[in-house]
Specification:
Layout: H1 8-12, H2 20-28, H3 40-43, H4 55-67, H5 75-85, E1 108-111, H6 114-118, H7 121-133, H8 149-152, H9 157-173, E2 178-181, H10 184-194, E3 200-203, E4 218-222, H11 225-231, H12 235-245, E5 249-250, H13 269-281, E6 298-302, H14 305-317, E7 323-324, H15 327-331
Parallel strand pairs: 1-2, 2-3, 4-5, 4-6, 6-7
Amino acid sequence: MKEEYVCPCRDIDPKNFLENEEVIKLLETKEEFKFTQKDYLKLYNCIHCNDCGISEERFMLKQKFLDDGNKIEGLKEMIQVLETYGTPFKINKSRIKPIPGVSKHSSTLLYLGCFTTVKTPQYGVNAIKYLLSQKIKFCILEEEICCGYPILCTGSINIYEKLVDKNLKLFKGRGFSEIITVCPSCFMVFKKHYSKENIRIRYFTEYLKPSEKKKSGNLIIQHACPLRNGEMPGIVEYLEKLYKESGYNVIDKIPTRCCGFGVGHQLRIDISEAIAVKRMLDFKDEGGFLEDLKEGENYITSYCPDAYWVLKAYGRKKKVKFKVKDMCDLLL
């Protein structure tokens, strides 16, 4: 648990924010009380960026909220969609077309994730192309089962555990010894549950190398909160160095704040959208962080598919003057 942290949810809705000490106390005394429906605003005022260091504990409070008989609007339908389609999306057909060079059979699986295949397919396509350019051999599932993280964030831990078990049977049945993910949520879930099954879990950024052909342009990196906040220590410095070595002028004075989305958007949408709007201001002149811009193209990127989508959607809304490109595209 961190004593000092910067939480975007606390900044947006301080009235309904639970400090770390309050979360721990509630867990320690959870047998002594019951949550009521009015506790929803406080318990779900969290987008799980893990800046506070106790994201797991906040999941447990949400589980108690549901166990105490309270409701989340749309949760029943969300569970039905997951059980029917294996993903949070009713329209779950992957928009990523087959790409020549991908192995039909391999002990290494590239797991793209629900959001990537449905909402940000070009992000996934470029990840595939980049890994192929590095001579990495891997296969892709025709149909993936959700990692479970979106439903975990509602507090429905039993449904989450069912999805974890389904994927484990699938992965072991196919004989995968390594899984590469392109989504921070998938990486966290797989690392937690499958590493002990002798399946190596890797994130696609581990395969990125400085471009041999020097690139140019100003570059902002929107970092993936769960990875920089514990899952992959040093990833911020590693990626900024890599893109500088590739020739980009990396603007590293911009605070590494959350974009507001990820799975948080399915619950307190008001919180997510307010954080996203606030984050976009960091990428504009009035943010006061763009004094080191050089002549040339301006790019903004992320190694999280959710953040990539936010940069495109909210960057357009707030007229951010940086072209959104994914990390692999910037190196290809």
